[in-house]
UniProtKB/TrEMBL annotation:
Molecular function via GO: protein tyrosine phosphatase activity
EC number: 3.1.3.48
Protein family: Belongs to the metallo-dependent hydrolases superfamily. CpsB/CapC family.
SUPFAM superfamilies tied to this protein: PHP domain-like
Name of the featured protein: protein-tyrosine-phosphatase
Keyword line: Hydrolase, Protein phosphatase
Catalytic activity: O-phospho-L-tyrosyl-[protein] + H2O = L-tyrosyl-[protein] + phosphate
Protein encoded by which gene: ywqE
Amino acid sequence: MIDIHCHILPEVDDGSRSLNESIEMALIAREQGIKKIINTSHYHPDFRYKKGEELLKELKDFNNILRENMIDIEVLIGNEIYYTNDLIKQIDELDFYTLNNSRYILIELPPTNFPSDLCNIVYELKEKNYIPVFAHVERYREVQENPELIYEVIEAGAIIQINSHSILGKSGKELQRTCNTLISRNMVHIVGTDAHRSKRRTPIFLDAYKYVCEKYSKEMADNLFIKNNNAIINNEDLYVSKPCKEEVKKKGFFKRLFKL
């Protein structure tokens, strides 16, 4: 399996705090059946996180350490880019990495200033030859209250990612409920761990895969955990099912009559 959203590199953002913790995370990931990880360090205008060539050097050094310790996991380059109103205007000048240098760009939306024009953001990014992957959408209150937002951005051409911890209810029942709503309506394309630590927010994947297998189908789980993740690192088109609109329940004759 392939984890396309993880903060495994040591001391580059708010993820792993040390080399030892990064190695522990890699060992957990290996036990979970993960073979490749895209390190998606935060790219945020307000924080001095490592980026550009400095980030690439950290990645190369860590892959060497994994090989020296005979940990058969490969870490690939990427960023989780924090959306701002100036992002698209400045995007050609920024030194961020797409997911394994593909067309796919992982976008984190501001939780306290959630954009009202998500579809326009998708269109503008696609005009610049990027395919936006919206990260951990189940965490946003606006999505929890109105999943139709996700239907609309998928129709516009976005890819939707949710976290494995959320699927399992480890981040709260509301996030798990939102994940189930989105999965059942074909409005999820990718699952990632969004792992930050070796003791909490760990790279747990296998249990979430089994959960989707049992609750939905093995075909669904394979698409969300394996096939689409593999397509991203190879810069290929994803398998995207037609999303389902919410069914509006019609009121019966007597209910309408008594309401009158």
